[in-house]
Amino acid sequence: MPTRDPVVPLTRLHGTWRLVGRRVTHADGKVTYPTGDNPRGFIMYSPDGYMAVEFFMPMKGPDGKAAERFLAYAGPYELQGDTMLHHLQVSAQPENIGKTFERQVSFENGDLLLSTSPDPQAGPGSKGSMIWRKVSAN
């Protein structure tokens, strides 16, 4: 069973984090990892209040075969309790510019979890978490 750390000061978020997984807990309790064993992406939080994220999201193409979708956005962020707000000023998906994405912040075994409930793909009663691991200095 993973250990969960309480939400800590904003400074713990500063730096670069590598995507290590995406976990979906479905309404029936089933847990899946839709990104598989080799997810690709980074998220960065700077002390000046800006963030940037880019990652590939596996999905099914129009023909039903596995495909990937590239997602990227950046802008100011703010932490309100355990809720992270990403205010999108730029985005690879133009329809998202000007939106605010809300994520629940937690830490699990040192990894950063940014979660949404419900998960947009899994539906009501679910929870989706992007799992990020801090990148060490070279």
Notes on the protein architecture:
There is one protein chain. By secondary structure, this protein is mostly beta strands. The chain has one domain: Lipocalin (Beta Barrel), CATH 2.40.128. The protein is built from no helices and 11 strands. The chain has an 8-stranded antiparallel β-barrel. The chain is globular, with a radius of gyration of 15 Å. The N and C termini lie far apart (31 Å).
Radius of gyration: 15 Å
For the terminal residues, how far apart are their CA atoms? 31 Å
How much β-strand is present in the residues? over 45%
Largest sheet: 8 strands, antiparallel, barrel
In spatial order, strands of the major sheet run 2-4-5-6-7-9-10-11
**Would you identify the CATH architecture?**
Beta Barrel
Q: Classify the secondary structure makeup into a structural class.
A: mainly beta
Q: What is the C-level CATH assignment?
A: Mainly Beta
Write the layout of secondary structure elements.
Layout: E1 4-5, E2 15-25, E3 31-32, E4 41-45, E5 50-60, E6 66-80, E7 83-87, E8 90-91, E9 100-108, E10 111-116, E11 127-134
Antiparallel strand pairs: 1-9, 2-3, 2-4, 2-11, 4-5, 5-6, 6-7, 6-8, 7-9, 9-10, 10-11
Brief digest:
The protein is mainly β. Helix content is 0%, strand content 55%. The protein is built from no helices and eleven strands.
